[in-house]
Design brief:
Layout lengths: L5 E5 L5 E2 L15 E5 L5 H9 L18 E2 L4 H7 L3 E2 L3 E6 L5 H12 L5 E5 L4 H10 L7 E4 L4 H11 L3 E5 L16 H18 L2 E7 L18 E7 L4 E9 L7 E7 L2 E4 L20 E8 L2 E13 L7 E3 L4 H15 L6 E7 L11 H13 L7 E3 L2 E2 L5 E2 L4 H10 L4 E5 L9 E5 L2 H11 L1
Parallel strand pairs: 6-10, 6-11, 7-8, 7-9, 9-10, 17-18, 19-22, 22-23
Antiparallel strand pairs: 1-2, 1-3, 4-5, 11-12, 12-13, 13-14, 15-16, 16-18, 20-21
Helix pairs in contact: 5-6, 7-8, 8-10
Bound molecules: zinc ion (ZN).
């Protein structure tokens, strides 16, 4: 007789191993592996593949696109991240830490949708009265929102088949359970099985399905990562600064993943930040910024944001230099510091380096390298730069400063916010909005800045 097939699954990312491991080699979580029975390939799926022989290839030109295939949720920042609205029959995973505002956002969205569509809010986290109280607190119209508080998948599937709502929110993924799976709700097996069922059902019935998934650091619950491959779109909800929430797509079958949505948390729920260009900048008085601060313009999707890079250096505590940077990748900060040390002669190897971006935006654009280098230089030297100056450019390891894309767009956005001067690589083409200083190398950039102060 064969042994029962047992496998171990990482509850955070879904990696499968034959043996228990203390640390997941994929996502780095500790104690995240849980034992489960290896499930044989789903019989349902096999059958569907065999029965469904009616379909045959068609020419793309013969396909009619239904204009109602994508609809707007009415929450502008959410629609932006989704790529212009929700596709009918698509499944969207919304992940984030507990308490960040996922349920609030979904409740607000479902109210907007309920004006023209049939909607259903499925809550396994809160009772109907709790949801009602929350909706009232947010000042939502309760008229057309239906709620269902049973998260047993068999019952839920039955309800969906009968009522066929246009939009369904599941709050949350981790409360779903199927009687066919022996493990408890929130385990990898349950989450995977129930999500597969729901995603399949929503495709079949044309339901736009939103799945809320909690991301817990302790790993008590399996994370939303284990079903990322099942859904069409994966959104993550993040906290950035106090009261600011960013929503970002990690995967989007129907649009780009470059756009971010920005919300402000208030007692009336999440409010879309409609003019976010200046959102991440601190208002300051005076001609100069404090040492260690440099402004730059970054592009996220179709929008330009002005942001403030902050750097602080202090003599290293532990004998060797360390970098503490949440918002810009540590490796990038290390590399920029190395270039600054080698090519501009600024000694940093005995300093601890702290880097931050005001407002909490994470920046992965290369254009941040020149302003980051200048912020480090300004911090080490203790010099202030003009407060109407911004800089952008990429650094090479040889200390040259390179062009970045969308320079005119960045210049224009800065001009609109009252910036008067820009420091850019020599060959950058600009629109003549700002007074321009140019540099070929980081050394030149530092010289130009030294003359400004
Ligand atoms: Zn893992």
């Amino acid at each position: 007789m064969k042994d029962r097939a047992v496998q171990f699954v990482c509850t955070q990312c879904g990696r499968i191993e034959t043996k228990w491991l203390g640390r997941c080699p994929d996502c780095g979580s500790w104690n995240s592996f849980e034992e489960e029975m290896a499930t044989p390939p789903s019989q349902k799926m096999g059958k569907a593949a065999v029965i469904d022989t009616k379909t045959s290839p068609v020419f793309l030109k013969d396909i009619n696109i239904d204009p109602g295939f994508r609809f707007e949720t009415g929450i502008s920042e959410l629609d932006r991240v989704l790529g212009g609205g929700v596709m009918r029959g698509s499944s969207i995973l919304l992940g984030g830490e507990p308490g960040i505002g996922k349920s609030t956002l979904m409740l607000q969205m479902i109210e907007k949708c309920s004006l023209g569509k049939s909607v259903l809010y499925v809550s396994g986290e809160e009772s109907p009265s709790q949801v009602k109280l929350r909706a009232e607190r947010l000042g939502l119209s309760l008229e057309k929102i239906s709620i269902f508080c049973d998260t047993r998948i068999e019952i839920l599937a039955n309800v969906l088949e009968k009522t066929k709502p246009d939009v369904v929110v599941i709050d949350s993924l981790q409360t779903l359970s199927s009687s066919e799976v022996p493990s408890p709700a929130g385990s990898v097996n349950q989450i995977r099985c129930c999500s597969t069922e729901l995603v399949g059902l929503s495709k079949q019935l044309g339901i736009s399905l939103f799945l809320i998934g909690h991301v817990t650091k302790e790993g008590v619950l399996a994370g939303p990562k284990v079903i990322e491959h099942l859904v069409d779109t994966v959104l993550y909800f993040d906290q950035a600064g106090s009261g600011v929430r960013l929503i970002r797509a990690a995967k989007n079958r129907f649009g780009s993943i470059d756009e971010i949505g920005i919300f402000h948390m208030s007692d009336k729920g999440l409010i879309a930040v409609t003019n976010p260009t200046s959102f991440f900048i601190t208002e300051r008085e005076g001609e100069n910024t404090p040492p260690g601060i440099v402004y730059t313009a970054v592009i996220e999707g179709t929008r330009t944001f002005l942001v403030e890079i902050q750097a602080l250096t202090i003599p290293a505590k532990s004998g060797f230099s360390r970098v503490y940077s949440d918002r810009i990748d540590n490796a990038r900060v290390n590399r920029v510091a190395a270039v600054l040390e080698r090519h501009a002669g600024i000694r940093l190897n005995d300093q601890d380096i702290y880097v931050n971006v005001a407002g909490g935006m994470k920046i992965s654009e290369v254009s941040v390298e020149l302003p980051l280098a200048l912020a480090l230089w300004s911090a080490v030297q203790g010099v202030s730069l003009p407060s109407k100056l911004l800089a952008f450019g990429e650094l090479s390891l040889s200390g040259e400063v390179r062009n970045v894309s969308f320079s005119e767009k960045r210049e224009k956005a800065a001009g609109e916010l009252g910036f008067s001067r820009v420091l850019v690589p020599k060959t950058t083409v600009l629109g003549g909005v700002l007074e321009v200083s140019r540099c070929n190398t980081l050394k030149e950039a530092v010289q130009v800045c030294s003359k400004m102060v």
